[in-house]
Amino acid sequence: MPKAEALSKTKPMAISDLANPTRFLAFADRILPFVWAAALLGLGVGLYLAFFVAPPDYQQGETVRIMFVHVPSAWLSMLGYGLMAIAALGTLVWRHPLADVAAKSIAPVGAAFTFLALVTGSLWGKPMWGTYWVWDARLTSMLVLFLMYLGLIALWRAVDDSGRASRVAAVLILVGAINLPIIKFSVDWWNTLHQPASVFRMGGPTIDASMLWPLFVMAIATTLLFLALVLMVMKNEILRRRMRTLQLTAAGATG
Amino acid sequence: MIGAFAAIAGQTVRLSFKSGGGALVGLVFFLTVVTVIPFGVGPDLNLLARIGPAVLWIGVLLATLLGLDRLFQDDRDDGSLDLLVLSGTPLEIVVFAKALGHWLATGLPVTLAAPVLGLLLNVEPLGLGAVTLTLLVGTPGLTLIGAIGAALMAALGRGGLLVAVLVLPFTIPVLVFGVSAAAAVIVGPTPFLPPFLILVALTLVSAVVAPVAGAAALRASFD
Fold first, then answer.
1. Cα B180 vs. chain centroid, distance in angstroms?
2. Residues 6 or more apart whose Cβ sits within 8 Å of residue B125
3. pLDDT for the residue B189
């Protein structure tokens, strides 16, 4: 018995070991403090750069600083749905044990960042465009993304059997993934009020370097924050499922 | 196979019209929506004439969405869904037949009622014709797209509003092009044919995708 344990401890952990919930919990516990530290440090540096170092826009003035929160939030809302789509493939195609846990955990965090993007964009729109909201392609498709997030969260909450719900949710996630290219290219396909792409476009970014670097720092910092939150939600979800199994077992034993 | 198709579609229609079937409830809901909107918007007939096609389309969309959970739920409750899945009939035929029966029982009555209710909204006669035509083409598409959501939720047992919420984003293109085509006849310089043809295309595509996706959903939820 001790020999087998010693053998398993000396082998380096492969990425496929993360499919084991126990190993995943141990892994998450190990890296979470570092991810949180990096996220908070990055946010501190990024917010300082955004509010004190980046210059005011020649046209928009100080209001442009909302961009440093609005744009990373929008990027993360789409990244979140993209990761959910990959997790959905993991559930349906590869039957990865933790894929549905990942999808279920990303949804509320992604929905929160989508909401943040919508709200900061709306607050930015009032001084810039004169209106809190306009039904152009970019805003409408982001709102539809938010609705899809909420619909998926409602689906998971409505069903007790997590196995079946995860397959249904996976199909819905993949069908809804059509929205992602629509969001990304909406400002290029249609003549809308929202400005066209100025960072991720053919021909390189058109935004000035003094604003581009704080933007990237904020993007990386918020992505680390996203990762930390998703890992914590995944831990909770695994523990919640274990508790449910224990409860069912206990109920079965006494009944 | 044609016999099975006709039998399933016919039985869906018959059961819908019997007591507890819910065939005409959608129609009454449509009437309620069209009646309530002028209470909120105000009785200005010019305004109602301008938004009339959109109001009719939204009423039809909501009536269709709310009736969708019944598509497979009644069969699931009395066990005949299991029999349909286990029978030799291809599931794609089953899904298409049930969607057709559902449309005949709920979508078609609502489409036929639309020109009458359009009179309540002061829509001009040419507009009434355009709305009816676009609804005739669009409601099968709505039922088919909704059938995918209904099939996904069939085995889970929780239907109702959740199916409507999940299906809604995918029915938005049908709504947009339907209203665009109908309004083009009334209001504008924009032509009628392009959005109408796209509407036809959406329905035809859903006629292919929905049976396949719905059958896959039913199979996946019964393993």
1. 18
2. none
3. 76
The answer to whether residue A7 scores a pLDDT higher than 60 is no
Q: Minimal CA–CA distance to A77: which of A146, A158, A141, A128? A: A146
Chain A neighbors of B169, CB-CB under 8 A: 144, 147-148, 151, 176, 179
Among B65, B158, B166, the strongest candidate for a mutation testing the A interface, having the largest count of A CBs within 10 A, is: B166
Closest by alpha carbon to A200, among A177, A178, A181? A181
Pure H helices in B24-160 = 25-41, 45-67, 70-78, 80-86, 91-102, 108-120, 125-154
Residue A168 is nearest to which of B165, B168, B221, comparing CB atoms?
Answer: B221
What span, in angstroms and rounded, lies between the C-alpha atoms of A25 and A37? 19
ipTM above threshold 0.85 = no
A112 within 8 A of A225, measured Cβ to Cβ: no
Compare all CA atoms of chain A with the CA of B148 and give the residue at the minimum distance: A172
Q: Give, for A96, the enclosing helix (H) or strand (E).
A: none
Specify burial of residue A59 (Cβ count, 10 A radius: 0-12, 13-18, 19+): exposed
Domain ranges for chain B, please list them.
2-221
Model pTM score: 0.83
pLDDT mean over B59-86: 85
> A168-210: per-residue pLDDT in tens?
888 889 888 888 888 887 777 776 677 777 777 777 777 778 8
- Domain residue ranges in chain A: 32-196+208-238
